[in-house]
Design a protein that fits this description.
binds 2-acetamido-2-deoxy-beta-D-glucopyranose, six-stranded mixed β-sheet, alpha+beta, about 325 residues, globular, single chain, disordered C terminus, transmembrane, membrane
Amino acid sequence: MLSATAVVFALISWVYGQTYSATYAPSDLPQTSEQGQSGTNQCGSTNNQTSSCQNVYLNSVDDFCFYAPPEPGANATIGDTERIEVSWCLKDGYGTRTIPPNTLSGAHFVQTPDYVQVTGVGNLTLVNIPAGDTGGELDPHGADGNGNPIGGLVFSSAFTGTLTQLHEWTNFMSDSEFCFRGCKDGPNAPALCQHIYDTLGCMWNIPGNYSAGVFERCDGDTNEPMGVYGTSTFFQGEPVTPSAHPAPPSSMCTTFTTVGAVALSTSASAGTTSLASSTATGSHSSGTSSVSATSGTQKSAAVPMYAPGVLLQVMALVAGGAAGVMVIA
Ligand SMILES: *[C@@H]1O[C@H](CO)[C@@H](O)[C@H](O)[C@H]1NC(C)=O
Ligand SMILES: *[C@@H]1O[C@H](CO)[C@@H](O)[C@H](O)[C@H]1NC(C)=O
Ligand SMILES: *[C@@H]1O[C@H](CO)[C@@H](O)[C@H](O)[C@H]1NC(C)=O
Ligand SMILES: *[C@@H]1O[C@H](CO)[C@@H](O)[C@H](O)[C@H]1NC(C)=O
């Protein structure tokens, strides 16, 4: 059944030109949200390490999740398990798995007017990714229209103060690197969370700071959409892959000595931003730190995900947009 909120959000999505089959609130989630889902969206509030919860929360550097395999094993590469990944979070309380202590060695959370993202490094074999897996891309647009993972839902409180679904998102995971961008619903969301560059890895798709040894939360400017260079759009597979866009400036950074299961100790490098008050801000002029893209180290995923589905997906989007169809499931 549709709640009034879902209808309102569906209308907003329609006005923006996107068609979403539903909008969920974390307080009112179904057991599953897509057909063929291996896990659940109804997760309770107590984490455990066999949880099959597939809800991700992107709130801050000490409160985010990503997708990783439910079981370890040589066959648990992201490419092999993309349809069944489960959610791993830093915080208890979401009914997901907990990212084990010492998994992450660096994480950088940036909030821009249009998206939130977290980029970093670690030993992600501790979340079941086999050593040697150069990784793959996860997003809500699998070849059959369901997500990778099927039924994955992403929420953030960054933009409204309350947990709101972000319909467009992209998450790259490998054995040693992760990045997750969740876009605020709106006309720019599909481009800023583009999912068609699935073999080009974190640093090309989600420019940012991937340094180890630092956990920080910053404000930032919105980057240009991945793959779009002025009026020209690059498509994966073309002979020359252009450079990633440089990461835009960030500011108001708050650093943490560590995150997750270990006690936090904070120090605000720019003074005024506290984690509790991290709401979206339109422009960032204080410029206390500037993040530049790590150059020349683009990582390619070994497994091209659902490339054949991309064209279908684009066609479906175009057709849906042209017809102005509002889909409500
Ligand atoms: C673990 O979490 C899942 C939610 O995905 C729940 O169904 C299951 O009962 C929990 N297991 C334990 C042992 O608490
Ligand atoms: C791993 O995948 C290969 C190829 O699909 C398959 O032959 C093998 O049985 C799988 N091994 C396990 C342990 O699932
Ligand atoms: C990752 O953690 C595992 C388990 O503790 C360990 O065996 C492995 O050496 C670690 N890998 C790296 C690259 O540190
Ligand atoms: C990443 O962030 C750290 C901590 O703020 C900073 O020292 C470092 O210079 C940044 N790296 C890049 C490439 O911007």
